[in-house]
Predict the structure.
Amino acid sequence: MTGKHETTKVVILARGLGKRMRKSDESTKLGADQAAVADVGFKAMIPMATRNGRPFLDYLLSAIADAGFTDVCLVIGPEHSAVRNHYERVAVPARVELQFAIQAQALGTANAVLSAEQFAGNDSFAVINSDNFYPPEALNALHAMAEPAIVGFDRDVLVSLGNVPAKRTARFGALDIDSEGYLRRILVSPTEEMLQSGEPIYSSMNCFLFTKEIFGACREVPVSVRGEYELPQAVHLAIERKMMRFKVVRVSAPVLDMSSRADISRVAEHLKSMQVVL
């Protein structure tokens, strides 16, 4: 035995309402299969080809397995029976053990993480979004980390090498990192000092490694101004109460972000050469 710690579990948050994706966009042409899924806002299951294409989530699961994760929990709503049917009957994964957790109501990402508490048990676990395709550098780092962590993505690289428009980076905030490389806070926007420094600004794309202590913070976090229990606020609570420290993993590689209908063709183009092995 080497004693090397590796995280094998990952929780994928797929319960969101997909409001941006459901919004009509006459300038974006989609195939009938793509439009049908976009209409209900379940971004993870949008086909990556206009006809009979693999759903986006297939690509994400394949990448997760490539990184060494073996156990996956997909947090879905009670209305998402189609995704369960797909992975239990149509495309049964062989490289990961897939479980489902039901978040009865869309009460926010902190509440979604609580839905996976039984799956996580006492083990460390990664948490990622179902509508982002993360680079290998990020997934490999979370698999190998020996302490809680957050991946910070260079926001200039998100724009230059990915599909993220510059104005969208405002949604991802900026990481305030201390001198030892640990997270102080996830800021709503970069400070003037950050902007003037010339140094890379790192943003959060909800790519975390947690230990079981996060569940206490998720239970205690107050409702946000948006009326949700939000994971960044739970992270702040965990830091403030010294329940956890989060090492920042700095990554200069793009994340494919599928927020709206206009993103679908761009993401599909990036993924078209990827071999998917479930």
